[in-house]
Write a structure and sequence with these properties.
The complex is a heterodimer of chains A (about 250) and B (about 375).
Chain A (H helix, E strand, L loop, with lengths): L2 E6 L7 H14 L3 E6 L22 H5 L10 E2 L11 E5 L5 H10 L4 H13 L4 E5 L6 H9 L2 E6 L3 H16 L4 E10 L4 H12 L3 E7 L1 H7 L4 H4 L4 H14 L4
Parallel strand pairs in A: 1-5, 1-6, 2-4, 2-5, 6-7, 7-8
Antiparallel strand pairs in A: 3-4
Chain B lengths: L1 H5 L2 H69 L8 H14 L7 E6 L11 H12 L6 E7 L2 E11 L6 H4 L7 H7 L12 E10 L1 H52 L12 H4 L4 H29 L6 H12 L2 H23 L16
Antiparallel strand pairs in B: 1-4, 2-3, 3-4
Helix pairs in contact in B: 2-3, 2-7, 7-9
The chains are: A alpha/beta (about 250), B alpha+beta (about 375).
Chain lengths: ~250, ~375
């Protein structure tokens, strides 16, 4: 059975796209067919991790939403770009990086209903096991739709007072949408923090399972900015934590 | 070069010093060997020269002072007195010399092809020396090494020329020679000499083996002293390097490692205590390092304190208001109603008709 996973964060800069890419890679490494849709149309970024540049994108999610093509035409197979042999496959539907296209979305918006049709079609045409949606921060209409139709939702947050209020609202709203599985990922945790303690405290405060507490360090930032971390450093403790998060997202609960 | 770089610091220095020491020992060894050999040759050759000159002095004394006294005696008595002959006195003096301790292996010979006394007959090697003098009248001296009776000796040779017509009294024909001499030595050998002939090679043999072995042992002892002092220097250097440089660096590296893997505790900076008392550059570095480790530890501690103070504060009233703003809209309620249906629908579609393409019949996109 295929699974739709949304990865969301209330604010930007939490490392949402990075987490999405790494979890997708781990799932594909286990032999699954995975597609990532970058719905962060206003500030696309996940393509960078797969080494895709503006010129590599001939068709994007924008083209589909404006009725210029089928959504599968915008899906790129990025498996080979990772330069690590994977048992499964990873596809990416990027958002347009062209300033004009971004401005047009801001000006005109798009038919949110098309997104759901697109997801549906990707699942079928690409015979996907997992569809991962890299959402736009905040809680606008298209984000709510993505969350609503997901089988699992991962909310990425930092242990930072700026993230607490928004994350609490997001958790509450997602609960009202009856998302079957919801998990928190605490990212960029200063290494001096005790991970177990942070996990316990966050779970108690938000009433929601924490799938992983990921540490933050300068070294990690340097390594992570350049490609998909888990494939380059398969034995790093960070990779183990992301694998744990991936496993929790794929499971149906305890 | 890459192997060299992979070596430990101590090993690297030792290797480098070994190369330098090895090269200097080789160079100085060769130079010293040449020097002692030259000294040995000079010593034996000056001995030989001294003897040759002494012998010639004796000869000259005999010829000019003894002989004139004995000639009338021999004539009066009608007998031959060998003491009147320079060669005889030379040989006798040398025989006496050989009787002294330490001079047993010295030898003197007036090597001739046609000597009056058979003792003076040249052997094959001496004949060659003599022939060289005969063929080259300008050649005044020959010297070098040869083996005589199984021993290495240094020889000094000079040509003997019949320069005095008086010599020919005894060495031209048996008829002109004193009858007493012919009676003693026979009428065959030692005649037929001519004026200005090179009749013999005057050769002095000085034993060289001993001098050589002495210089060899001198060389060996100097080399042993040199090698020992180099070995001691190397040992001392390694000890000093190990104690004063390698070990302290190792301790600092260990502390740095502990800091990097977050293993630092209150006692960790104190591991450099002995080093920080040093006044040299490493002591200075150790003090900086110690201070750094203390700072890191202190910062670590204050961060740990912070994690205990981590409070997640959420304004529940504000949260309720924000959620209500989002949820209490028609769009949201619609979405909520639709969402479950959509999820269900999807899973049903999937199990029923996995290959159904709602828009067109195209295949999955090829890899890009």
């Amino acid at each position: 059975m295929s699974r739709v996973i949304s990865v969301h964060s209330f604010r930007g800069g939490t490392g949402k796209s990075n987490t999405t890419a790494n979890i997708a890679a781990l799932l594909a490494a286990e032999g699954r067919r995975v597609c990532i849709v970058d719905t962060d149309i206003l500030s696309p970024g996940i393509h960078v991790l797969f080494g895709i540049e503006e010129d590599d994108v001939t068709k994007s999610l924008n083209d589909y939403l404006w009725g210029k093509c089928n959504i599968e035409d915008a899906a790129q197979d990025v498996t080979e770009r990772l330069r690590v042999p994977l048992k499964g496959r990873i596809y990416l539907v990027p958002s347009s990086m062209k300033a004009g296209d971004i401005a047009r979305v801001l000006r005109e918006g798009y038919d949110v209903g098309l997104l759901n049709d697109g997801y549906q079609r990707l699942l079928e045409v690409l015979k996907l096991d997992v569809l991962m949606i890299d959402t736009h921060p905040g809680l606008n209409e298209e984000t709510l739709l993505s969350i609503a139709i997901s089988d699992a939702l991962a909310i990425v947050m930092r242990p930072d007072s700026q993230d607490y209020q928004g994350t609490a609202v997001t958790v509450e709203v997602a609960r009202k949408l009856d998302v079957p599985r919801m998990l928190l990922i605490v990212n960029k945790t200063p290494t001096s923090f005790n991970a177990a303690e942070v996990k316990a405290r966050v779970e108690r405060t938000f009433g929601c399972e924490v799938a992983a507490v990921l540490p933050h360090s300068e070294e990690m930032m340097t390594l992570a900015s350049d490609g998909v971390f888990v494939l380059r450093y398969p034995n790093n403790p960070m990779t183990k934590l992301l694998q744990q998060a991936a496993n929790r997202l794929m499971s149906d609960g305890d | 070069m890459s192997i060299f770089r992979r070596l430990r610091l101590g090993t690297r220095f030792t290797l480098l010093l070994l190369v330098v020491f090895g090269a200097s020992i080789a160079v100085s060894g060769v130079a010293l060997y040449r020097l002692v050999t030259t000294v040995a040759v000079e010593s034996v050759s000056s001995n030989g020269l001294l003897l040759l000159h002494s012998v010639n002095a004796v000869r000259s004394y005999t010829a000019h002072q003894v002989n004139p006294l004995l000639v009338p005696v021999m004539q009066a008595q009608g007998k031959f007195i060998p003491e009147s002959v320079p060669a005889f006195s030379a040989r006798s003096v040398f025989t006496n010399l050989r009787g002294d301790r330490g001079f047993e292996n010295f030898a003197y010979k007036e090597a001739a092809l046609n000597p009056t006394s058979p003792q003076d007959r040249a052997d094959a090697w001496e004949t060659e020396v003599l022939m060289r003098f005969r063929n080259d009248r300008k050649l005044a001296e020959q010297s070098g090494f040869r083996t005589l009776n199984g021993q290495l000796v240094f020889y000094n040779a000079r040509p003997m020329v019949v320069g005095d017509p008086a010599c020919l009294v005894c060495h031209s024909t048996p008829e002109t020679a004193p009858p007493a001499m012919v009676q003693r030595y026979g009428s065959i050998d030692g005649f037929g000499w001519k004026l200005n002939d090179v009749v013999a090679a005057q050769i002095v043999y000085v034993p060289a083996a001993e001098v050589y072995s002495r210089s060899w042992s001198t060389w060996v002892s100097v080399m042993i002293v040199t090698l020992t002092s180099f070995a001691l220097a190397l040992l001392a250097f390694n000890l000093v390097l190990g104690r004063n440089v390698v070990k302290p660096i190792g301790q600092m590296a260990e502390l740095a490692r502990r800091i990097s893997v977050d293993e630092i505790d209150e006692m960790a900076p104190k591991s450099l205590a002995t080093m920080t008392r040093r006044s040299d550059e490493l002591g200075q570095m150790a003090r900086v390092f110690e201070r750094m480790a203390q700072e890191v530890y202190a910062r670590e501690q204050s961060l740990r304190q912070q994690v205990q103070e981590l409070r997640i504060e959420i304004d529940e009233v504000k949260k309720a208001r924000q959620v209500a703003q989002l949820v209490n809209t028609d769009t949201f309620q619609e979405l909520r109603a639709k969402a479950q249906k959509l999820r269900q629908q999807r899973h049903e579609t999937e199990t029923d008709i996995p290959d159904n393409n709602p828009v067109s019949g195209s295949d999955p996109p090829a890899q890009m």
